[in-house]
Design a protein that fits this description.
This protein has 10 helices and 9 strands. Strands 1, 3, 4, 5, 6, 7 and 9 form a 7-stranded antiparallel sheet that branches. It has a two-stranded antiparallel sheet with strand order 2-8. It has helices spanning 4-11, 13-20, 25-37, 61-89, 94-123, 133-213, 219-233, 243-264, 292-295, 298-305; strands at residues 279-283, 320-323, 327-345, 361-367, 386-392, 400-404, 413-420, 429-432, 434-440. Among the domains are: 220-263, no CATH class; 274-371 and 383-440, Jelly Rolls, CATH 2.60.120.260. Residues 40-94 are annotated as: Disordered.
Length: 452
């Protein structure tokens, strides 16, 4: 059931005129807009206190007119309020409102389009872009330039390394050469010192050998010798010996030794000397000095071979030459002896023309060869040859060198053989100036020829 106030407003002519007039159109539109924005108010269905609740059957015309009048009054009373509200809503122009709404809708539409575009791109990914050949060519060119620069840098580094290697090799080679030269110089110096030391050692060995061969007097022997000297001087046991007397005795002894050595140079008996019966019985091929013509005179060779058993006066060339650097000579002694030493003589190096013909490595053998007119009663005879000694003729020593017999228990011999296996450099001939055999005659008939 409609409210009486609404009915009165609808029936009021003033309200209809206001709605119909052009001037009242804007307030009416504003009012309608305000009504749309306002919350909906529930109309009071209760009867107005000033309006009696009349029943429709009892209402008459008077009653209807009174109601219409009341409704009109209420509408008139409410009209200023609507105008005020319309005036408030009309303070903002309509186009601004429309523009704001359109802007909001556009923003919302843009957001929706953006979200939809994102969803579509996610569902449909973009196909790969075609490769730009020009860009790839430029990239390849740049890569090629970088590789070329790296290759150049590598070549330059390699060249520098090779130069450094050559420099190091040169320095190392120079250092190695200097070190080698220094080591060679030190080696040569050390070898020279070792050679000098060897020479000194040989000299010391010879001196020690000489000391060993020398017979030193003991105290008893010296006292005995001193007593003999006193007796020779005619002094008694308690008498003092004058120094002049000792000097005179020493002079006599020295003169006797000088005379003894002047007899044959070394003061030892030579049982191979030619003047006492020694002779050369056999030898290797002799060197022919004059060729074919000289070989016709055999007497010359016989005379030459006897030179090695005669005293030599140190004349160069006065020797018996044998062909080649090796050979032998067999000598028969004047009689059977027990040998003590062998002496080999060559020309002195102070007057020699060539020392290369001197024999070097030698071996001396001996045996006893019994003759028809010679016999030693009680002595054993043997034709077996025994090595008596081996030695080396040294050019650095004196030209007359004596070598002791080293074979033990040598018996009686009357034959000596000298074999030389080398000389001091000559391949044509070897010269022998003199050979001497020293020893002593047997004193007891029970001595054997050889017991080795």
């Amino acid at each position: 059931m409609a409210s009486p106030s609404l009915a009165a407003a609808a029936a009021s002519p003033l309200t209809s005129i206001d709605l119909a007039s052009p001037n009242a159109s804007r307030p009416a539109a504003a009012a309608a807009s305000a009504l749309r924005k306002r919350p909906v108010l529930l109309l009071d269905q209760r009867p107005h206190p000033s309006t009696p609740n009349l029943d429709s059957s009892s209402a008459g015309p008077n009653h209807l007119s009174a109601a219409a009048a009341a409704a009109g009054a209420a509408a008139v009373a409410q009209q200023p309020r609507r105008k005020k509200a319309g005036h408030t809503s009309s303070s903002r122009p309509r186009w601004q409102t429309a523009l704001s709404v359109a802007a909001k809708n556009a923003v919302l539409l843009a957001v929706l389009l953006y979200v939809g575009d994102l969803a579509w791109r996610a569902a449909h990914p973009a196909p790969p872009q075609p490769v730009d050949q020009a860009a790839m060519a430029g990239y390849d060119a740049r890569v090629a330039d970088v590789e070329a620069s790296l290759a150049r840098a590598f070549r330059m580094l390699q060249v520098q390394l090779e130069a450094v290697d050559r420099k190091i090799d040169g320095e190392v080679g120079a250092a190695r050469g200097e070190l080698t030269a220094l080591l060679e110089e030190k080696r040569l110096g050390l070898e020279g010192q070792l050679k000098r030391l060897d020479a000194r050692t040989d000299e010391l060995s010879d001196a020690l050998g000489g000391l060993k061969r020398m017979e030193f007097l003991t105290k008893d022997e010296f006292e005995k010798f001193w007593n003999e000297v006193k007796e020779s001087l005619g002094s008694g046991p308690g008498m003092e010996v004058d120094l002049d007397q000792v000097r005179a005795l020493a002079r006599e002894i020295a003169m006797g030794e000088i005379e003894k050595h002047a007899a044959d140079g070394i003061g030892r008996v030579d049982y191979a000397v030619a003047t006492a019966g020694g002779k050369v019985v056999r030898h290797s091929d002799a060197y022919e000095r004059g060729g074919f013509i000289s070989s016709l005179f055999r007497g010359d060779t016989a005379a030459s071979q006897q030179k090695i058993l005669q005293p030599s006066f140190g004349e160069p060339g006065q020797c018996f030459p044998l062909q080649g650097s090796s050979g032998f000579v067999e000598i028969k002694l004047r009689k059977g002896i027990i040998p003590d030493a062998i002496t080999l003589e060559h020309v002195s190096k102070d007057v020699a023309y060539d020392m290369s013909t001197a024999p070097k490595d030698c071996r001396v053998s001996g045996w006893y060869q019994e003759a028809h007119n010679e016999a030693y009663s009680g002595h054993a005879a043997s034709a077996k040859m025994y090595v008596l000694t081996e030695f080396t003729y040294d050019l650095d020593k004196k030209n007359v060198q004596t070598f002791d017999i080293t074979a033990p228990d040598v018996g009686i011999i009357n034959m000596v053989r000298l074999d030389f296996t080398s000389n001091h450099g000559s391949s044509v001939l070897t010269c022998i100036y003199r050979i001497r055999v020293h020893g002593h005659e047997p004193v007891s008939p029970g001595m054997s020829v050889s017991q080795s």
